[in-house]
Amino acid sequence: MPIASRVSQLHLSGIRTVMALAAERQKRGFPVIHMEVGQPDFPTPAHITEAGFAAARNGFTGYTPNAGVQSLRDSVAARVSTSSGIGVSGANVCITSGAVMALYLTLMAIIEPGDEVLVPDPGWPNYISAVEMAGGTVVPYKLDPSDGYWMDLDTLSSKVSPRCRAIMINYPSNPTGATVSVEKMLKLLKFVEDHNLQVISDEVYEDFVFEGAHVSALSHASRERVIMISGASKSYSMTGWRLGWVVAREEVIQAVSKLVEPIASCPSSVAQAAVEAAINGPQDCVAEMKAAYKRRAEIAVSILEPAGLLISKPTGAFYAMVDISNSNLNSDQFVRRLLEEKGVAAAPGETFGHSARSSIRISTAASDDDVREGCKRIRDFLSLGN
Ligand code: PLP
User: Fold this and answer.
1) Where does the record place the Aminotransferase class I/classII large domain (predicted)?
2) Which of 43, 56, 135, 301 could form a Cys-Cys staple with 113, CB 3.0–4.6 A?
């Protein structure tokens, strides 16, 4: 029996390819500095893990409602109300198995086959696979590194066809580490209002803005316009617990909750208990992780910027883009050789979009020493004219 064509048509991220190559190299007995994946290097804080254990011990191990337990939906609503300054209730929240699922189900809920979705270039590769799996068509829009990875609204306007339904945005950004100002956000939100688009704002790095406050799309637009995606993976170093959420008007939340049923029935009960403890417990762990990511970004900048290799200074998240245009290699060849010859794993720029094909993305979610040593090796590799 043949495998369905949607499988071969799926665009998978080049990040996982490098992860596999790096693991294989380690198996051969060679050490690797891991800067390829957005995997926080901190353990989940102990009080959060303990809440998950306690839930399991106390028998909280059954199915929950599709949209998650009410107390967690309310906790997420309270968290979002505080950070965005607008009142959101539990009815505006659907808990999912990670932000990745929140994103996919949101697209399934709001687009018809053939509808178009504007997707950032460079941007997180899963936006493309999620739009395509939902039957939509991806329309990439370029982000300009010299303008803090922002978009030109006139060019964007020329890309909006009558079939265009939504625009994906992501600040703080993976892969660029860029954040957004209130002024820019307001301009974009006026644009989406004028073009009658839905904004899907992926804010999973909302807790890691190095200067000033995070600018949430929710704070500045009508509730009808914005669907916010976020989760616990990055904020609380809980990637493997698989817990995320959608925050939107009730109609969207009801649709997403319905779609949860055939895909997962509900999110994990014990993960929900742990995340509830995370949201309602002390937040110093988040502040400590943010301070570490900021410090590591500064280490990377101090090595790559003087060598003229940093494309733009990261202002949030835990990523930076490095210019490899003087290497005569495409980004895929570059990361393979960097791994083999210098023992550093990085992600090829091409996987984040055509505009990033002369760059690589480094993740600074690694120890200070690894970030320092990894950046030095990248600099030396490039300065040898590879
Ligand atoms: N959105 C962005 C921009 C990401 O970088 C990631 C993970 O790397 C996610 C969403 C997925 O988060 P989750 O682990 O909650 O599925």
Assistant:
1) 32-378
2) 135
Domain boundaries of the chain, sorted by first residue: 5-44+284-383, 46-280
User: Ligand 1: which of 174, 230, 247 to mutate, most ligand atoms within 8 Å of CB?
Assistant: 174
Starting at the edge strand found earlier in the chain, the sheet holding 164-170 runs 93-96, 244-247, 226-231, 198-202, 164-170, 116-121, 137-142
- Chain-centroid distance of CA 142 in Å reads 17
Tell if the pTM clears 0.90, that is, is over it: yes
Span 65-97, pLDDT tens digits: 999 999 999 999 999 999 999 999 999 999 999
- 124 CB within 6 A, ligand 1: yes
Say whether 320 sits in a helix, a strand or coil. Answer: strand
Beta pairing partners, 120:
141
What is the torsional sign of CA 194, 316, 147, 168?
Answer: negative
Q: Is the CB of 119 under 6 A from ligand 1?
A: no
Tens digits of residue pLDDT in 14-61: 888 899 999 999 999 999 999 998 889 999 999 999 999 999 999 999
User: How do beta strands 359-363 and 116-121 pair?
Assistant: unpaired
pLDDT of residue 378: 96
d(CA 141, CA 121): 6
0.95 surpassed by complex ipTM: yes
CA 190-196-201 angle, 5° bins: 65
Could you say which of 1.10.1040.10, 3.40.640.10, 3.30.70.60, 3.40.50.12160 is the CATH number of the domain covering 46-280? Answer: 3.40.640.10
Q: HSE of 184 in the Cβ direction (CA atoms, 13 Å)?
A: 17
Minimum CA distance residue for ligand 1 atom 7: 38
Pocket flag, ligand 1, residue 177 (CB < 6 Å): no
**Strands 344-345 and 33-34: what pairing?**
parallel
Q: How confident is the model at residue 223 (pLDDT cuts 50, 70, 90)?
A: confident
